Amino acid sequence: MLRVTVSGSGAPRVVLGPGETLLIGRAPDQALPERDATEQLRTTALALPRVAGHVSRLLGEVAVGEEVVRLRWRGSTGAQLSSLFDAPGGARRVTLSDGMVALLDEGDNQLLLLQGRQQPDGTFTDLLVSIDVELVSTPDVRTPWVPLPDPESAPTTEAPRLEPWSREWYVALALAEPWLSGEDDYPRPASNREIYERILAWRGHAWNLERAQRVDDAIRVVARMAFGIADDPFTQGQGRVQNVRFAVGRRSAEVQLVTAKDLAAVLSAQARGTGLRPAEDPAIT
């Protein structure tokens, strides 16, 4: 039979067996089914500690079957699922979005919640949840863990984001375009000149981005927002902007600093010739 152990920094360790489901999130107890006591014990909730206000109350469901374990993602918060298994390359990493279902591999599956934990100084870092799947011969005899409900949990707030239509927002959009448009088989990070020309084509004016240093400065602002102060790649070592812009572009798309909807709105404004007057476009608020 399968035994699943879910753990995270500061969170209680939860062990699941076949037929059991665990709800994970900022305040997932609100999604617990209103059924008889026997059925309620088959579905429990794990509230992650010290999560940011923009994290969804219900992020996902871990459902344990007789032969498979499924993770159904239910949140709008960006996350990645990584696992190790016997295959070429030895690993997989999947970016999760609302409605996706992933089968978990036997062994350690790591769920990384992007910018999910809020630090005392108000900054954000990634939050790691471990989901260990193992095959056991006999079930554990244990007392089910029942969480205390939090009926007064605060509504989900908006995640940190760049100001739409700002210079840094356009730079992030130019860097993340391969991931937003689905052309990320092997994307090459755009050069400073290419970023300038792309923005110039989109809106007809590109501020002072014809100067390479101004593009570098904008990328540093985007990186700080995308990774947070603690994980800012520009503070982790020496190197030019070109060495990290690939990671900044991908991360900007993963944490939804810019989205495919943003790119579509920019292209629509360009087609209408209103790139310099985006405030008149209701596509982005």
Can you give me a brief rundown of this structure?
This protein is of the alpha+beta class. Strand 3, helix 1 and strand 4 form a beta-alpha-beta unit. About 2% of the residues have low confidence.
Question: What does this molecule look like?
Answer:
The chain is α+β, with helices and mostly antiparallel strands and 285 residues long. 25% of the residues lie in helices and 25% in strands. It has helices at 37-40, 167-181, 192-203, 212-227, 245-254, 260-272, and strands at residues 2-8, 11-16, 21-25, 43-47, 60-64, 69-73, 79-84, 91-96, 101-103, 107-118, 124-135. Strands 2-1-11-10-7-8 form a six-stranded antiparallel β-sheet, with no helix packed on it. Helix 2 crosses helix 5.
Tally of helical segments:
6
Shape: elongated
Strand content: 25-35%
Briefly note the structural class of the backbone: alpha+beta
- Largest sheet, strands/sense/barrel: 6 strands, antiparallel
Q: Roughly what is the average pLDDT, rounded to an integer?
A: 83
| Number of separate strands | 11
Span of the ends, CA to CA: 50 Å
Q: Low-confidence segments, ≥5 residues, pLDDT <50? A: 86-90
Helix content: 10-25%
Which radius of gyration do the C-alpha atoms yield? Answer: 22 Å
How do the strands line up in the largest sheet?
A: 2-1-11-10-7-8
